[in-house]
Structures are given as structure tokens and as C-alpha cells.
Amino acid sequence: MGRCPCHAYWPAFTTQSLLNLNLKIRLDDIIYTKEGRPGILSVVDFNISHSHQLVVCAVSIFSKVGIDVEHHHQTSIDEYLSFFPLDIQDLITASNTPASLFYRYWKIWEAVLKADGGGLSAGEKVKLKNHKIATLNEKEWFYFQVNILPDYTCHVTAKYDNISIRANEVVI
């Protein structure tokens, strides 16, 4: 039996309010960009990520959204450091907890890339502007950490900073 938490519902937006919109969304309404990012005919934006036995989903009717989650497992972060700018590489390697910091930045990067929809090839263009804003192709993305379970790192990105995030766990 796996865990299937669904995360990141936006301001005044719940599954019930989606149903109340009476959008009559069908599986046929799911479209894909040329990069393979799914969407629902410009009405609702969503993004999904999974790691280990966990699936997370971000849903928004207000903004494009990205989410990424990772289960902390033993990995050699050295092979991935080159994806980051030198200042971030230095922060990670100088940290007392380099793996934890690596996962934090990696999940921010991937969430921004997924929200933007341009794919991983744009990774070197993601820049951290400050402690809550990342930029990609001159667009600002606000990022938020979502604390879900121990040994997991999860971040959500959106175009706005005045969001509320609520996590609901669904066990299947």
C-alpha cells in the first residue's frame, strides 16, 4: 500500500470548489505542450511529482504551478552539482548538511522548470533572486517549501506570493 498525499491547494481553492465550478473536465480535455507538460485546456493548471512511495499534486486556477518532491536517499551529489551556478555549488559544498541543502535547491530548480514548462534543458537559466523568488527567462517564480513527511523535500512554485498551501493526505 503506497501513500498518495496531494499538496498545494491555492487560495480559497479546494477539490470541492473545483467541482462547484462545474467545469465538466474529461480525460480527453488533458492537453500536452510540445515539451510534454500536461494541462487542462487553460482552465486549471496542475503539476505532479513522485518519489519513492509518495505522489504530490499542485492545482491552481490562478497561476501556472510547479511541484517537485524527492525522498532523501544516499546519492552522490557531486555528479549533480554542475547543474547549479557556482555560488550555489559553494553553498552546498560548504554546508554542514550538504545533502539536505542539495535537495532543497534541486527541488526548487525542478519546480520552477516544471511550472515554466520549458523542460530540464533550461536548468542553467534558473537563478535564485532571493530567499523566495527564482527567475527563469526573466520571469519571476515564487517558491515555497512544503513540509510533508520526514526524509522528503518538496517545493511548490507559482507566479504569485500570496498563496496558501494546504496538504491533504490520501492513502490508497
Explain what this protein looks like in three dimensions.
With 172 residues, this protein is of the alpha+beta class. The chain has one domain: 4'-phosphopantetheinyl transferase domain (Ribosomal Protein L22, Chain A), CATH 3.90.470.20. The protein is 20% helix and 32% strand. The protein has three helices and eleven strands, in the order E-H-E-E-E-E-E-H-H-E-E-E-E-E. It has helices spanning 15-20, 86-94, 98-116, and strands at residues 3-6, 30-32, 38-40, 45-51, 54-60, 65-71, 127-128, 133-136, 139-145, 152-158, 168-171. The strands form four sheets. It has a five-stranded antiparallel beta sheet, covered by helices on one side. Strands 1-11 form a two-stranded antiparallel sheet. A hairpin with a 6-residue loop joins strand 9 and strand 10. Helix 2 (86-94) runs antiparallel to helix 3. The longest helix is centred in the middle third of the chain and has 19 residues, at 98-116. The radius of gyration is 16 Å and the shape is globular. It starts with a strand and ends with a strand. Residues 1-19 have low confidence and may be disordered.
List keywords for this structure.
3 helices; 172 residues; alpha+beta; five-stranded antiparallel sheet; globular; 32% strand; disordered N terminus; single chain; Ribosomal Protein L22, Chain A
Mean pLDDT: 78
Q: State the total count of DSSP E strands.
A: 11
Strand order of the largest sheet: 6-10-9-8-7
Largest sheet: 5 strands, antiparallel
Spell the H/E element sequence. Answer: EHEEEEEHHEEEEE
Helix coverage percent: 10-25%
Q: What fold name stands as the CATH topology?
A: Ribosomal Protein L22, Chain A
Helical segment count: 3
Protein structure class: alpha+beta
**In angstroms, what separates the terminal alpha carbons?**
6 Å
In percent terms, what proportion of residues is strand? 25-35%
Radius of gyration: 16 Å
Question: Can you tell me the CATH class?
Answer: Alpha Beta
How many distinct folded domains? 1
CATH architecture: Alpha-Beta Complex
Let me know the CATH homologous superfamily: 4'-phosphopantetheinyl transferase domain
Poorly predicted tracts of residues: 1-19
